[in-house]
Specification:
Blueprint lengths: L4 E2 L18 H11 L15 H4 L5 H8 L5 H7 L5 H24 L3 E2 L20 H11 L6 E5 L6 H6 L6 E8 L12 E5 L5 H19 L3 E5 L17 H20 L8 E3 L41 H7 L4 H5 L6
Parallel strand pairs: 1-2, 3-4, 3-6, 4-5, 6-7
The structure holds zinc ion.
């Protein structure tokens, strides 16, 4: 069965040609996917997410303000996009696309959306070119429908996933992992379950070591019902806002390692785990199997202090923050409904 890929022409909104946000990338990505023969049966087309679906992750008042074109100018400035009809439609359609990709992944094991990853949007407002947090919306919808009980968000965008972290802070059902440039936007970071803050100029080896050390043991331990993989390409050295120094080859291996670890856990049949992989940006790598590296108890993770390397024998035990969020849940906690139900 071909890999389901979700795409919609509404992902490309009309903004000024000299705007900093590279709006044409969605069309270009779709063209590359077609040219590569990955969408011979066509793309899956999403509906725009409804106000009720968006309110699974956002305050209803914020959703109404966006959909009604009534956002205060200060929040529009923080989002950084002109809130015209096409931009609002794009935000709701991208969230609908991530919901659709997640549903397809639950059916088939793996699916991608060509847009989304709006990880700076918090419950109360958007920021940093992000209007609605599509991944949080999709998780909220699936939790409310009881299609899943747990989710893992693997965020490899070079900017920290502060909005996703804030939305799921204190929610033991959702684990958030962010690999990002420590000195990059946002200035005020929110605590994910695990944050790997990388130094400016980080190159392939250190990045891949961090990802390879964290992800396989994390998947083994959590065995989440679904994984959202935000395959950021802005750690690449040519990215104007990235500050990291990944090469073409390193970026390809980043996605190979990320998607490979996820695909192996989803498709290997050992745990029947579900997977959703989101493709984004200029290139995507096919899932590949890679050898496991390291064990979770060897990891050293510091919020705010940056990735400190993988030291298998010198530090024992799971980092306290991670341990607190992933301890076996009581039946009582398991029954607790999503906060915004
Ligand atoms: Zn980014």
């Amino acid at each position: 069965m071909p890999l389901p890929i979700v795409h919609h022409e509404a992902y490309t909104a009309e903004i000024p040609a000299d705007h900093r946000f590279p709006m044409r990338k969605y069309d270009r990505l779709a063209a590359l996917i077609r040219a590569a023969g990955l969408a011979e049966a066509g793309f899956a087309r999403p509906e725009a997410a409804s106000a009720a679906e968006l309110a699974r992750a956002h305050d209803a008042a914020y959703v109404d303000a966006v959909l009604g074109f009534g956002l205060p100018p200060a929040i529009v400035r923080e989002i950084g996009l002109p809130m015209n009809e096409t931009v609002v439609r794009r935000a709701a359609t991208a969230a609908g696309g991530t919901i659709l990709a997640a549903r397809l992944a639950l059916e088939t094991g793996l699916a991608c959306n060509t847009a989304g990853g709006s990880h700076h949007a918090r419950a109360e407002q958007g920021a940093g070119f992000c209007t609605f947090n599509d991944v949080a919306v999709a998780i909220g919808v699936l939790l409310a429908e009881r299609r899943i009980e747990t989710a893992l968000v693997v965020d490899c965008d070079v900017h920290q996933g502060d909005g996703t972290a804030a939305i799921f802070a204190g929610d033991a059902r959702v684990t958030t992992l962010s690999l990002h440039g420590e000195r990059n936007y946002p200035v005020r970071k929110r605590a994910s379950t695990i944050d790997i803050g990388l130094s400016d100029g980080t190159e392939d080896a250190a990045y891949l070591e961090a990802l390879g050390a964290i992800l396989p043991p994390l998947l083994d331990r959590l065995q989440p019902d679904i994984v959202f993989y935000n395959a950021g390409v802005d750690p690449h050295r040519d990215d104007r806002l990235g500050r990291l120094a990944m090469s073409d080859d390193g970026a390809a291996r980043q996605h190979g390692r990320g998607s490979g670890a996820l695909a192996r856990s989803a498709l290997g049949g050992r745990h029947r785990r579900r997977l959703w992989q989101r493709c984004r940006g200029r290139r995507t790598a096919p899932p590949v199997a890679l050898p496991r590296s390291g064990r979770l108890r060897g990891l050293r993770v510091r919020g705010g202090g940056g990735w400190s390397g993988f030291r298998p024998r010198r530090r024992r035990g799971i980092p306290a923050r991670y341990r607190a969020r992933t301890a076996p849940r009581s039946p009582c906690a398991r029954r607790r409904r999503y906060a915004r139900n």
